[in-house]
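Hi R.,

Here's the chain you asked about this morning:
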Amino acid sequence: MRFAEALSQPGLGAVAEFKRRSPSAGDIRPGARVEEIVPAYASAGASAVSILVDERFAGSLDDVRAARAATGLPLLAKGFFSTEEELRELHEAGADAALLILRDLDDETALALMRAAERQGLDTLVEAHDVDELARATRLEAPVIGVNARDLSTFAIDRTRQLELVASAPRDRVVVAESAIHTRAQGAAAELAGADAILVGTSPMRAPDPGAKLRELVSRPLVKVCGLTRQDDVDAALEAGADLLGFIFAERSPRRAPGVLDVPDTALAVAVFVGEQEETPADLVQLYADVAGTVRGREAALLREGEPVARVLDLPWQGEDPDHWRTAAAVEGRIMLAGGLGPENVREAIAAVRPWAVDASSSLEREPGIKDHARVRAYVEAARA
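And here is the predicted structure, written out as tokens:
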């Protein structure tokens, strides 16, 4: 399978990177061996593997050759390439794709390299890190566009700008979010902005088990703890490993939050409204229909910047529906499953529905709006098992 094709498959793909060091972070995993790391990435569900060939990253073409011998996954060679001869060497070493960094290339050179790569059977990942470079990549008709959160001139990270660029990238291209992704929620933020894949290297390479870390980053479902009203409960949910933290602003809810509490950028805050939404600093909005006589309707839209990115399927308010899981399992697209979930049944629900995310609130409480931290931990652990 070609590199671009591998990244265009359904769901969030991952380009897992092998690197021993970087100019910005210094040593990451000195002495790391391709023969050990790359097969672990493949077993963990990587869509493709990225290999640094530049000596500033302690890499070389020999690493591409070793990776080619270790896996059948598409291989992306990363470096600072500017000549057709360099692309030829990459292809001969076994690479399937090459990185082209627009910061270092004018349009004429970039286009010539894209065409040269195509003649040799190489795909290209054309990298942009600002609005102008994204416009150039679009104009050059790059099939695969990488959006780097890191400014390669200053090494500064700007994830907010990255997500804005991902969201504005053309939808008929394969879009890869690069750098600064260390948690599932950060990967999900890129996914919901429109990324087809994430490129991750530092976080798995620093982990004791790189394959396990990669599997964690791309695994689903995400886990949401909702109905939070106290910072102490937010912190407990984060410590337990929750990805999404929900704050309810429905007037009639006994779990109405005082506001969106402090959520670090390793997780996502979700503001929950009924009928009409208000401005908040939350990353996402969960908007339910206003149904007379109830606190909320059964379905909600999960919104990012006002655009629907997932559906929330819930039980009727204070009601039962024995077919809830079966009905939810038949719905296509991203589904957040809610309603009656807790430590005792969330694994069974996940097996039956295969949702993108799960959501629990009242079952995790010792009283309305006050979480039982032991139940929160048990729920997150069960959902992520």
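One quick note: The chain has a mean pLDDT of 96.

Cheers,
M.
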